[in-house]
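Obj.: predict assembly geometry.
Materials: sequence records (below).
Method: joint structure prediction, all chains together.
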Amino acid sequence: MDLLLLAQEHAPAAVPKDGFLTQYMWLVPLLPVLSFFVILFFGKRMKSRGHWFGIGALSIGLAMSLYAFIELAAGNAAVEKSWTWFSIGDSINVEFGMHYDFLAGVMFVVVTLVSLLVHIYSTGYMHDDKRYTIFFAFLSLFTGSMLFMVIANNLLELFIGWELVGVCSYFLIGHYWEEKENSSAAIKAFITNRVGDMAFLIGIFVLFFAGHSFNIEELNHAVHEGHLGGTILTVGALLLFGGVISKSAQFPLYVWLPDAMAGPTPVSALIHAATMVVAGVYLVARMFLLFEGAGAALDVVAIVASITMLLAAILALVQDDIKRVLAYSTISQLAYMVAALGVGAYTAGVFHLFTHAMFKALLFLGAGSLIHAVHSNNMSDMGGLRRFMPHTFRTFVIGSLGLAGIFPLAGFFSKDEIIGGALRSASDLGSASAWVVLISATLTAFLTALYVTRMLIKTFWGEYRGHGSPHESPGSMVTPLWILAGATLTVGFLGFPVIGPFADWITVPGHEHHGFETLYNIVLPIGATVVALLAIALGIRLFSEGRKGFDLVASPFGWIYRFIENKYYLDDFYLKGIVKPIQYPIARASYWTNQKILDGVVNGAGAGAVALSHPVYDVIDQQVVDFAVNGAAGITGFSGGLLKYIQSGNVQRYAAVLFAAIAAFVAVFVLA
Amino acid sequence: MSADTWQQVVFWVLAVAMTFAAIRVVTARNVVHAALYLVATLLGAASMYVLLFAEFVAWVQVLVYVGAIVVLMLFGLMLTRADIGKANFDNDQRVLAAICSAALFGVTAWVLVDAFEGEEISLARETGTTTENIGQAIFSSYVLPFEVVSVLLLAALVGAVVISRRDPVDEEDDR
Amino acid sequence: MPVHYFLVLSALLFSIGVYGVLARQNAVLVLLSIELMLNAVNINLVAFSAYLGEGALSGQVFALFVIAVAAAEVGVGLAIVILIYRNRQTVDVDEMSLMKW
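Observations (raw structure tokens):
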């Protein structure tokens, strides 16, 4: 199996060699995990309460990630190492290893950068929190788990990392567990993820059964060369996508993400915007060759993503809680990424992952800054904050424009790549699902700009509607905001058509270099910008102060509004249709079965044993056994009683017997 | 009549007399009569010995048996205040004893007759008295049993004295 | 003369002595019967000695020893009987059955 990945055709003429640092990239996940343990044991005693360990580990991690990525970009080879963990029989070989290539490199940079900034931000945001130390411990553990998942070279190892990030998400969402709704949100997140994880795990086994390997490279290779295909491949791919649906919050398993906003805002920024939720996208990108060969699977992916992006964008339009707006926005943007992969626009999807991480983290951290100042999540308590919080305002606007996809911010480039890819796939390849993606992506772009405008106006313009006097956040919180804003402004150009290097780095392995989709049709970016500007204009008109905004409650379309407000009744369906039936009737039936049937059997066995022992005692022991024992003694006594009469004491009697015996013996001896 | 015939006649007379006397020994009611009948039996036996060319044994028999043993018996009867003159019923197992002795006699006699029928005691004798020969035999071949018997007699003597001694008086302990 | 006459006589006397030992009630009379038995044996021994000719004097010597032993035995036996009489005031053997069950 060829271990060297030559992703680009126009790669430098130099023979790829092993980079200096790329071999040691397994250290990068290890450092935060070590930091977790150190913080756990020593954090409370430190004056800093432990945050330096996490920041230190991540700084080193970021530096290593950047250096290694540069090495890769300079032409060094991707690295794969593995060793066998254990094997079962001859055929099942479970290995443990790393695979570091461009895709992993990009993820590493994203994760370490955003995690580091969130760490710095949290020193300010969580300053007065009483569980400060454990918070940082879990942040480190989460980062280590995410990096571990990225660097995994086989599906089982990836699954381990997948589960670990889910667990860390549970802990971090439930950070304020004194409120019941917070711990419930954590449980909801974990259980919803579990549903998808089951599908994922079964998918892993199906693929193992079909392809005889857990190794990602081997599986991809097998599909690409045609050794593996057919129905079983489609089934396996769809099952893997089941995991993606839950982890990356696609329809219908996105319901946990809005509720996960109950966690602290830095957590939302890190996990539910930039890193954990993109694990699903990463999985599809990683297994792209496999999905590609799976025929209908990619179509399903595209359709599901299209539905999700529209539904989520609509929901984002009616939220009052600023974090929920951002949450639904995240769901919608994730759907963009997944849809991109679904139509085959691999580079575009990964690029959007990269840019989205930047501006969504920025938006969340900015929202955190707002919440910190206003002490409320709701936009109805905000307003006119641009006067009080200039830094937050400016960075927030930059992030929002990035989200809306306005030139020259990052979101513009990445979003247009996706739409272009959908168009190419639709017209060149005639893929029906691509048309669906194209339409929904365009609509969603419109809606995105609309809700972004609404959010900005309600928060920063107009009169302040809250209590007290808000002030700007401390430097520890504002600095990461500016760093991310700078990123949002610049990274877009990495994906600039033709000259941008991103397409050189991220291409589907083994395929020819697609280049950038926007090259396909210059109409597209212009069209997209027009759509976005229209939406902004509409938003200003609808939501500005003085306007009543959406007062659809009273209108004939009121039922639509109520339908949307109740989140399409999806949560109610889950609760009443699935959770409650399990909780009450099924659980009660199980309990009854246990008490009556199982305990009945056990108790019955016990009673039966007791009942059986009575005859055994009465008959066998008392009568039979004792009869034998007492009988033996009785016979002995009885015969002794008879034999004692021989002892008459009379010597002559003895002599008589003696002589009689002599006579008898003589007779016998003589006659015989 | 020949010597052999005389021997047989004498034998038969003596045999009948001895048997009768023996039966009376064991059935006499009067204990002294029993002892005296024993004397008759023993004298008869002594006569037999003479008939069998064992004069020395005959004389020793008369001396020891009749002269000492029977006298001892009479002394014993006297000292134990045996019921002289009263009826003396034997004990309850007479019948069993009779059967037993009859069986014993039957078996023994049958064996002996079966083994030794037809054997004869010759009447030829060489010169030399039996006494002299016995003396020589005792003090040459049988000297060890002789000495042992002496010791036995001594032991019996001492034992008889010890057994029948009255308990010593306690004044010996005060010295 | 046929030797078996003497032997049968000896057996007869012996059996009569056995009867006396088993049937007599007085201990002294039991001893008497024992003397009868010993005599019978003596007759047997001497008869054999005569039958085997002059070379076999051992029968007579044996008879002498039997007589000597009988004397010793009677002495000790009577001493015991007298001791029993002294303790129990009776020489009835039926009374001397302490070692019964």
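Conclusions so far: Chain B touches chain A through 13 residues (CB under 8 Å).
To do: check interface contacts against the pulldown list.
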